[in-house]
Amino acid sequence: MPFEFLKNNDSDQPDDKVDSTPGLSKILGSYPISIYLILINIIIFLLVLILDGYENVWKFGSLNYVLVGEKFEIYRFFTAIFLHGHEIHIILNMFSLFMVGPFIEHVFGKVNFFVLYMVTGVMGCVASFYINFPDISSHEHGAPEAVGASGAIFGIVGGFTIFLIMNKSRLVDKIRLRLLQNIAIVLVLNLAFGFFSGLPIDNAGHIGGLLAGGFLGFFLRPEIFGYQKLNVAIPAALILLGLLLLSFIWSTWRYISSYSELSGWGYLFP
Is 30-246 CATH 1.20.1540.10? Predict the structure, then answer.
């Protein structure tokens, strides 16, 4: 992907901070992580649709406020990022991720991008839970809930916005300002749609992800300038990946043991 917005061919002049140990980047190959994320989201959406329908997405790990507040099913802070409420929801989110994800990933590098995506997605869920926390005395099956990748998408946009602001001297001014204007338009339109559409859009999750992404943007080092990843980047990515896998294992066990047709097999799934 060309980076004509860099001044003086910065991307072609790495300094002594170049990362000589690509780690996870080498394992994942040449495909952007954002493409893997899109495929995973689509596969999970289709599985939910086939198994029980997205109207029962709470069975698969949505951010169900009652189940988190009463039963402490904290794995839902991770699994909710990969669940969606209907076809339009996943189409809009995956289109947005496809449009901005690979570009931002190329700026920060695969590992940094994964950390940015996961942390901001979880923080979006945390913000959604604590801001929208309802009366948990209601029944769990009809409780308010939140799903979607939009908190993480707002997060990577927030991190990229900080990148554009902090690296003003190394970017072509005209293109940098145009990117900032486009980001502002996208954010304003999404937030306005959430506030005024009348649909149950979770702006708390959007804002939480955006602020978390902006904060992380101060610490992430853009690999297109030749910077080495932070020492904590790969351990953080591995920890987040482990927590994500454990969350999906927990969610799968919960579905099989409590909500699916197999739930009667108590001797296998107590």
Answer: yes
